[in-house]
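Need the bound structure for adenosine-5'-diphosphate, inputs here:
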Amino acid sequence: MPPTTPSHPPLIGRSDELARIDAALAAAEGGQSHTVLLAGEGGVGKTRLARAAAAAAERRGFAVAEGRAYSVESGVPYAVFADALGPLLRRLDPSALTVLTRGASAELAHIFPGVLSPARGERAESGESAAEAKARLYWTFLQLLGRLSTRQPLLLVLDNLQWADAASLELLHFVARQAHAPGLGGRLLVLGTYNDAEGVPSLLRDAEQSLVGLGAARVEWIAPLSAEQTLQLVQRIFEVPADVVRGFAAMLHEWTRGNPFFVEETVKSLVESGQLQQRDGRWTGWNVESIALPRSVRDAVLARVDRVGDGARALLDLAAVLGTRVRYATVRAVSGEPEESILESLDELRRARLLVESVESGVDDEYDFSHPLVRDVVYAALGRPRAQRLHAQIAAALERAYGERAPSHADELAYHFTRAGGGAHRKALGYLAESGRRALERHADRAAATYLESALEQIDADGEDGGEAAGLRAGVLEGLARARQRLGEHREAEALWLRLKQDAERGGDWRTVAMVERRVGLMHSAGGRHDRAIERFDAGIAAAMRAGDDALATRIRLARANSLQAIGRRDEARGDVHSALDSAVALGDESLLARVHRAMLLLHLWTGPVADARAHGERAVKLAADSKERLLEWSAHWAMAILGGLTGDAASTAHHVRESERLAAEIGSPVLRLWTDEVAIEYMAGVGEWTTALARAEQAIPAARALGQRTLLARVLVWTGLIHRGLGDVERTREHIEEAWRLVGGDATGDGPLDVHAVVPAHTGMSGYLMLLGENARAVEIGERGLAIADRTGDVAWAIYRLLPFVIENSLYLEDYERAARHNARLRRESERLGHALGLAWADATDALLTYLTGSAVDAVPLLRAAAGALEAVPFVFDAARLRRLIGRAMVDAGDSEGAERELRRAHEVFVRLGAQREIRATREQLRALGARPPAAAAATAGVGALSAREAEIARLVAARKSNKEIGTTLDISSRTVSTHLSNIFAKLGVSSRGELTDLVRTQGLG
Ligand SMILES: Nc1ncnc2c1ncn2[C@@H]1O[C@H](COP(=O)(O)OP(=O)(O)O)[C@@H](O)[C@H]1O
Ligand SMILES: [Mg+2]
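Answer from helper R.:
Posting the output first, comments after.
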C-alpha cells in the first residue's frame, strides 16, 4: 500500500485575477464579448485558474465549453475548438442542432468532423474561390457561436494554446476580433491559456498582438506563488498549523520559486519516499536539515512514476505515446491486456494522481495526464527505440480498430506511422497525403502545406517513379501547390505547378498541362500580373487544343479575355469572348454558354454598348438559373444590378439586387452578401433612401473588415462617407473617407501594382470630402490624380462614376470654366459610348451651368431644368435637388421670382426628406432672400408625413421616453442604428432634441 497522497488543496491567492475575470464575465453577460489570455510558465496555475473561472461562470448561469490542445496535435485542424465544443454539440438533440446550425451542419463538419457529418459529395459552390469558401466557413462558425451564446452566455476555455494548430489559431483570431466588434451580438467570453516559457509560436504571438492592439483581448501574466502563499499551500495540503511548517515552506519556496506544480510534485515525492510521514493522524518530518529534495521537477515526477506497478507503468507509457486525452476504448484496442487489469492499472494511476479523469467526459471514460509535464517526463524516459515500438503498435492497432473509417483519422495515423520508423514508411506517406488532402478541404491551408511538404520530401527521397507512385506524386504536388497559393506564397506555388506540368508533359497528358497553365494564369491575374497571366493562358489554350478539349480551351479563352480587358487590350478581349461564344454554341454546353454570356455582359458593361450588355446579361441569368449554378447566377444578377445603376434603370437595379440577395443567402456566402450590399447601398443613396443605406452600411463595414475584403471595404466606406457628406456631417464624412484612403495607401506614389477598383473610388471620396471642406483646388488635384490612375488601366466607368462630376464641380467653384468644359466634354463622350444615363445627365447639368455662369440666365434656365429632370429620372435625387436650388438662383437672375420659389420649395422638400442639413439651411436662406417664408418649422407637416415606418416607430418610442438602447432591444437593431435614425428624424422634422421631438409627436400625433 503506497503512502496516502495528501489532500487536494483549495485555490491559493489569485483573487485579483479572478475579480478581473469575473468583471469580464459580467461584461460578457451584458453583451460585451471579450477575450482574456492567461500566460505563464508550465505549472504556475493557468489551468487551475481557468477552472476557477469556469466555476464562477457556471454560478452566473453561463454554459462552459472547455477545450485543450495537445503537443502531438499541433497539425490537426481546429482540434482545440472541436475539443471544446464537440461535447456541447453532441449533447444537443438533432432538432436543436439543426436550429443552431441553420442547415450549415455539413459545412461545420469541417470543424467538428467527429460530431457533424459532412454531406455526401458535398462540394464548394463551383466557382467560389478558396478564400471565399473559407470566409463562409468562419462566418458560419461565428454565427453558431452567436446563436449559442444568445440562448445562454458562454465561456469558451481554450487551454494550452501554445500547442494549438494553425487553423485553430486563425479561427480564434477571427472569432475574438468579431466577438469584440459591435453589432455582431452574442454573450461570449473566450479564455485562453498558454505556456510562455519556451518561446511562443509566432502565429499565436501575432494573433495576440493584433487582438490586444484592437482592444479585443487582454493578457493576464500569471505569477508564481509568493513565499507566504507557498506556506499557505503547504498548510492546506497537510492541514497543519503555520508554525510547524514555516521553515520547510520557506525552503520549498526557494527551491521551487513558488511554482505550485513543482511544490506539489516535490511534496508528493517526499511523502511517497517516506520522508514526510503521518503518525497518529499528524504529519511529521519537517526538519529542514534532514530532508533530501529531488534534484528537479523531472526527478520528482520520475520518482513517483517509478513507484507504480508494472501494469500501470506500461499503461502510462502507452498513454504518453498516444499523447492526447486517452479514451478507455482506445486503450482497450491498443494495449491487448484483459479488461480487468486495464481497469486496475487505471485506478492505480488515478490514485497516484498521474492520470485524472477528464472533466468533459462524454459517453466514454476519458483520462488525461494530471499535468502535461508528467506526460513529457514519461515520454522522454522511454528512449527512442521503445517509443518507436509503441508508436508502431499504436498505429497498427488504431488502423485495425478504425477499419474503413481509417482515412477520416488520417492525422492521428500519420502522426504515429511517421514516428513508427522503418517498415511503416509507406503507410506514413499515404496518411500524410490523405491528411493534407483533407486539411485542404477543411480550409486548414497551413496544416495542409505541412503534411504535404513532408509527404513530398518522402516521395523525393524514395525516388520511385511510374505507376502508383506517379499518381501519388501528382496528387501531392497539386495539393501542395494549392496550399502554397492559398497562403499567398505564389513563387513556391508556381514552382510546384511547374513540376506538375513537367511530369504531365513527359507523360503526354496535355489536359493536365492545360489545367495547370490555367491555374497559374488565374493566380497571376488575381495578383494583377496580367502580362504573365496572358502568357500562361496562351500556353494553356494550345495545350487544351492539343488534348482536343474544346470546352477547356474555351474556358481558358474567357479567362484570357478578362486579363486582356484589364490591361486595356479591349479588341483582343472582344475577339476572345466572341470566339468563346462560337465554341460554346457548337459544344451545346449550357453552363459554358452561361459563362460566355456573363463575360459578354462584363465586357459591354464597362465599354458599351449598353443594349448588348443587357441582352447578354439576360441570357446569362437565364442559362445560369437553368444550369443550377448559383454562384454563376448570382454573378450575372450582380452585374445586371450594376448595369441598371449605370444606365439609370432603378426598377431593374432593384430587381437584380433582390435576386443577388436571395442567392447570396441561399449559398450562405458572407462575401457575396457584401458585394450585394455595396450595390444596394449605392442604389439607395441614389434614390434617396439614406437612412436605410446607412443602416445597411453599418452592418456591411464591420463585416468587410472581418472578412478582410479590402477592395469592398474601401468602396463601401467611400459610398457611406459620401452619404454623410450629403447629410452635412463633416466628422463622419472624414472618418469614413480617411479610413478608405489609408486602406488603399492613397498618399503613396510610385507605379507598383494597384487595386484600381479601390484606389480610384478612394480618390473620388477624398475629392468629395475636400469639396465639403471648401478646399476646391485640392479636390481638383486629387480628383485628377484619380483620373490618371483610371486612365492607366482604361477603367472609364470609374471616371464617370463619380470622379469626373466632382472634378468638374470643383473647377466651377474655382471659376476655371475651361477646365470644367474640357472634363465635361470627356464625361459626355464616355457616357455616350457606354450608354451611361447618369453620366449624361451630369454632363447636361454641367453644360447648363456653364451657360448660366458664362452666358445668360435666361438661356440657362430651360437647360438646367431639363438636366434636373434627367437626374430625377435616373433617379439621383440629391444632385437633382441641388440643381433645382441653382435653378432657383438662375430664375431670380432671369427675373422670375415666382418660378424660383417653386423650384426652391421643391428642392427643400427633397432635402428635408433626405435630412441634408446644409442644403436645408442654404435653401431656406435663399427663400428668405426672396422674401418668401420658408416652409413652417422645417416643414413639420410634410415632415411627420415624410418619416418612414421605422422612423415613425422610433419617434413614438422616443416620445414614450425610451432610451436608444431600449429602442434598439425592442426593434432588434443596434443602438448605433437607432441614433442614426434619430439624427435623420431630427433633420426631417427640424427639431434638435428628444424633448422637442416628444412635444411634436404629442401635439401632432403619428398616424
Ligand atoms: N493558486 C493555486 N492554489 C493551489 N493550487 C494550485 C494553484 N495554482 C496551481 N495549483 C496546482 O498546481 C498544479 C499545476 O497547476 P496548473 O494549473 O495545471 O498549471 P499550468 O496550467 O499553469 O501548467 C495543479 O495541480 C494545480 O492544482
Ligand atoms: Mg495547464
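Comments: Confidence is low (pLDDT under 50) at residues 937-941. The pocket of adenosine-5'-diphosphate (ligand 1) is lined by residues 9, 11-14, 40, 42-48, 233, 260-261, 264, 371 (CB under 6 Å).
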